[in-house]
Automatic annotation (TrEMBL):
Name of the gene: nad3
Domain of life: Eukaryota
Full protein name: NADH-ubiquinone oxidoreductase chain 3
Protein family (similarity comment): Belongs to the complex I subunit 3 family.
Function field: Core subunit of the mitochondrial membrane respiratory chain NADH dehydrogenase (Complex I) which catalyzes electron transfer from NADH through the respiratory chain, using ubiquinone as an electron acceptor. Essential for the catalytic activity of complex I.
This enzyme's EC code(s): 7.1.1.2
Membrane topology listed for this record: Multi-pass membrane protein
GO annotations of cellular component type: mitochondrial membrane; NADH dehydrogenase complex
Regions that span the bilayer: 6-25, 57-80, 86-108
Length: 117
């Protein structure tokens, strides 16, 4: 029990010393307040909130989310190949891939993937 307390105190002391050393050594300047504000999605914090939003950014973000979810849905197909009958697995996989391909063809026909100038 005594050894566990000594180990815990040693860990806390070493952690505290490393944090203090990093605070002293770091080159953060308090003069650059602009660098500390959040900057997300290409919007500047100081701009008004009613600025027009880039539709291309929105469409690319939606496409990324859709394909990300599709990949997550494909992982169980790979892991279940040996646990189900080959006919059911093949049918399910083909239906899923056909739905994905139809979605890609639809997005391609609507020219979602093209950047408009």
């Amino acid at each position: 029990m005594f050894i566990m307390i000594i180990c815990a105190l040693t860990c806390l002391i070493v952690t505290f010393m490393l944090v203090m050393i990093s605070i002293v050594i770091s080159k953060k300047s308090k003069n650059f307040r602009d660098k500390l504000i959040p900057f997300e999605c290409g919007f500047n914090f100081f701009n008004p909130a009613r600025m027009p939003f880039s539709m291309q950014f929105f469409l690319i973000a939606i496409i990324f989310i859709i394909f990300d979810v599709e990949i997550i849905l494909m992982v169980p197909l790979i892991t279940t190949i040996f646990k189900s009958s080959i006919f059911k697995w093949t049918t399910t996989s083909i239906i899923f891939l056909v739905i994905l391909m139809l979605g890609i063809i639809l997005e391609w026909k609507e020219k979602t993937f093209e950047w408009k100038k």
